[in-house]
Amino acid sequence: MPTLRRIFVPNAAPPPATARYAHAVEIGDILHVTGQLPVDPDNPEAALPASIEDQTDLVFLNLNRILDAAGYRLENTAFARIYLSNFDRDYAGLNQVYHRHFHDQDRLPARTTIGAAKLGRSALVEIDLVVARAN
Fold it and tell me: Measuring CA to CA, which residue among 108, 100, 106, 7 is closest to residue 56?
């Protein structure tokens, strides 16, 4: 049976006091990264940015900090799940930022993007990942 390694990253956005979870859990060579909101990891109490682009940038900042701490790389993402609180308005803006991070056409992850009625902290976007340890 594979070992579970729970990863807590001090320089990523912390879970809110009302929720308890690890930033990621590794099972074998697969890392499951908890959904990240656009919380500034260096100032978690700050208001969220207004635009989908700025919020998505913060989400990727947190995702990358978690991946770095766990020893994984964004380019080895197998699956991305994206939640948007206003799908029709924000889908194009999300993709502008997403494509900067997943720019290699040959290394695109599988992906689901869905509209959600409400996200934590009234965020516009939340993203979780499944990442493989690969060369």
Answer: 100
Handedness of CA 34, 130, 97, 93 (dihedral sign): negative
Give the number of other Cβ atoms within 10 Å of residue 110's Cβ. Answer: 10
Residue with tokens 């409400």: 118
Query: In this structure, are residues 109 and 128 in contact, taking their beta carbons and an 8 Å threshold?
Result: no
Q: Is it the case that residue 135 has pLDDT exceeding 70?
A: no
Each residue's pLDDT tens digit, 57-97: 999 999 999 999 999 999 999 999 999 999 999 999 999 99
Q: Which amino acid is it at 16?
A: P
Q: DSSP per residue over the chain, as a string?
A: -PPEEEE--TTSPPPPTT----SEEEETTEEEEEEE-S--TTSTTSPPPSSHHHHHHHHHHHHHHHHHHHT--GGGEEEEEEEESSHHHHHHHHHHHHHHHS--GGGPPEEEEEE-S--GGG-SEEEEEEEE---
